[in-house]
Specification:
heterodimer; B: 243 residues; Rossmann fold; 6-stranded mixed beta sheet; 39% helix; binds adenosine-5'-diphosphate; binds magnesium ion
């Protein structure tokens, strides 16, 4: 019993971090049809910037903010200056994001070196309590709370505001969105920056949890894609379900069959896609 | 209230394939002009050129609104909508996963129209009473006729001056086609619109057209100065009536 509860709690908190990572990727794909291989790099860079901020200012909230905002700016620059020129050419776009991912990898190595770091989280979050049979780390609860809050804000923004409706209209039919006067290039730039923001926020949060180190970018990237593909591209409820599913499968897989952990993660994915190729919540 | 459209020497296509060849046409103030032509002759491409979705290779597209001429070629679609030009696209292109209300509100993206959203929304529901009962329904779940009405209503929400309608009859039963065509006429009168309508359905189009053009392989092959002239033209008869 204790084992199951502990693993479920760990899986859900890991899933919460994957939600921050995957929601941005899904949004960007839904609006712009861009497969962004640099999405894991946003996570990594967010973690590094957060790390530096904490070591300079000792402020964790500032780390969250500076990590997410600076990477959002990087994403904005990538879209406006580079990807925009390749609009609707999917292969060149994928290759360009791959190029960026490699550049960011080297940049990370150059600035932050090859050592692994863990971000120092505020003391009250570093505590843990024994709740019945389960050992509860506050920081994991914090990750779940952040993901929950971000999910609610995203949902309200997408479903209840005019800008959100413009984004959904662009997902539905980009050409017609232009036709009713929506400034689609502006929507795209905004969504791309938002996607980078969310991934980097996940990176800062993750830096206090799984740490930040060279190679983390390409380690989380497949997880982001699995979350988004299983949930259905461009669907927010899909990302919620996808990230929880992946978080739990990954945790139980690693705990129960450590030598088969990739199999326990990817076999159910393959099965879901075989039965429903558009993902659980995908419409197309 | 003057609004008119003038196209001169337009050439456009996709990649190396030229679809529109040196095409010129006029839509005068308050006119309803029919653009007749069978499938694949470039009607939709022309509409997309006017909206800025397809970039012309050469030629001029000029809209005159309130006495001011605007060169449309080179402008982005949202800028063209902003000027007061709206398209009801072929196949309707609603946002299927958005509600009727949301589709209409997104129509009001023009800043002029945004100030009068409530007023325009009321007008829309008054003009299309059937939509008023379906405000929270997803657009994709409505019947073809209702969807065409919603597409018209959405275009109205931008408070346009020039309305482009691309094959409103596609996929509708004859009875519904007649209703939609009558609605376009009603909108035009009520809001003082200038209308360019692409159609394959000659009999329905000439019910409301003041005059028209016949487009064949991207060229204007015949210009009818009145609906009578259109109806009795040999080319029109050959294309549409198989005579
Ligand atoms: N997006 C596109 N890409 C390439 N060719 C196109 C595209 N849209 C239309 N065409 C081609 O342009 C020609 C004219 O098409 P279209 O403008 O849709 O004609 P119509 O509206 O009169 O049926 C056709 O030969 C069609 O195949
Ligand atoms: Mg057409």
């Amino acid at each position: 019993m204790e084992f199951w509860l502990t693993q479920a709690f760990n899986g859900i908190s890991y899933g919460a971090m994957l939600f921050l990572l995957g929601s941005g990727l899904s949004l960007v794909f839904g609006v712009m049809r861009i497969v962004n291989l640099a999405h894991g790099s946003y996570f990594l860079l967010g973690g590094y910037v957060g790390l530096t901020t904490v070591s300079r200012t000792k402020s964790f909230p500032l780390a969250l903010l500076s990590g997410a905002l600076s990477v959002a700016l990087i994403g904005l620059g990538m879209e406006r200056l580079f990807l925009r020129r390749l609009s609707r050419q999917s292969l060149p776009q994928v290759l360009m994001t791959m190029g960026f991912a490699l550049v960011f990898q080297d940049l990370g190595l150059l600035v932050w070196g090859g050592d692994p770091y863990t971000l120092a989280v505020p003391a009250f979050l570093a505590q843990s309590v024994q709740a019945g049979p389960v050992f509860v780390q506050f920081y994991r609860l914090f990750i779940i709370a952040v993901a929950f809050a971000v999910g609610i804000v995203l949902w309200v923004f997408l479903e209840r505001t005019r800008a959100g409706a413009s984004i959904r209209a662009t997902v539905d039919d980009a050409e017609m969105a232009q036709g009713v006067g929506i400034n689609v290039p502006l929507v795209s730039a905004g969504v791309f920056a938002l996607g980078a923001f969310l991934a980097a926020l996940g990176g800062v949060v993750g830096a206090g949890f799984i740490g930040v180190y060279p190679g983390l970018d390409f380690e989380v990237l497949p997880y982001a894609f699995v979350v988004v593909i299983v949930g259905g591209l461009g669907s927010l409820p899909g990302v919620v379900v996808g990230s929880l599913l992946v978080g739990l499968l990954d945790n139980f897989g690693k705990a129960l069959f450590p030598e088969l952990s990739y199999f326990t993660l990817f076999a159910p994915m393959a099965l879901i896609l075989a039965l429903k190729p558009t993902g659980l919540f995908g419409k197309r | 209230m003057a609004s008119s459209l003038r196209i001169d020497g337009l050439r456009a296509g996709y990649g190396s394939v030229r679809v529109i060849h040196d095409l010129s046409l006029r839509v005068g103030e308050g006119e309803t002009v029919a653009l007749l032509g069978t499938n694949g002759n470039g009607k939709s491409t022309l509409m997309h050129c006017i909206m800025g979705v397809v970039r012309p290779g050469a030629g001029r597209i000029v809209a005159k609104l309130d006495g001011i001429e605007h060169d449309l070629a080179g402008k982005a679609p949202h800028q063209i909508v902003q000027l007061g030009i709206a398209l009801v696209p072929e196949g309707r292109h609603l946002f299927p996963r958005l509600t009727v209300d949301e589709n209409l509100l997104l129509g009001a993206h023009r800043s002029d129209a945004r100030r009068r959203i409530a007023e325009n929304l009321e007008l829309c529901f008054e003009t299309f009473p059937a939509l008023a009962q379906r405000r929270d329904q997803l657009a994709g779940s409505m019947s073809g006729g209702e969807q065409q009405m919603l597409a018209l209503a959405r275009a109205l929400m931008t408070a346009p001056r020039i309305l482009l309608v691309d094959e409103p009859s596609v996929g509708l039963s004859p009875l519904l086609v007649a209703q939609v065509i009558a609605k376009i006429e009603e909108l035009k009168r009520r809001f003082g619109l200038t209308v360019l309508m692409a159609e394959q359905n000659l009999a329905q189009a000439i019910r409301i057209a003041d005059r028209g053009y016949v487009i064949v392989h991207g060229r204007i092959e015949f210009e009818g100065a009145s609906r009578e002239e259109l109806a009795k033209n040999d080319l029109v008869k050959r294309l549409y009536l198989g005579l």
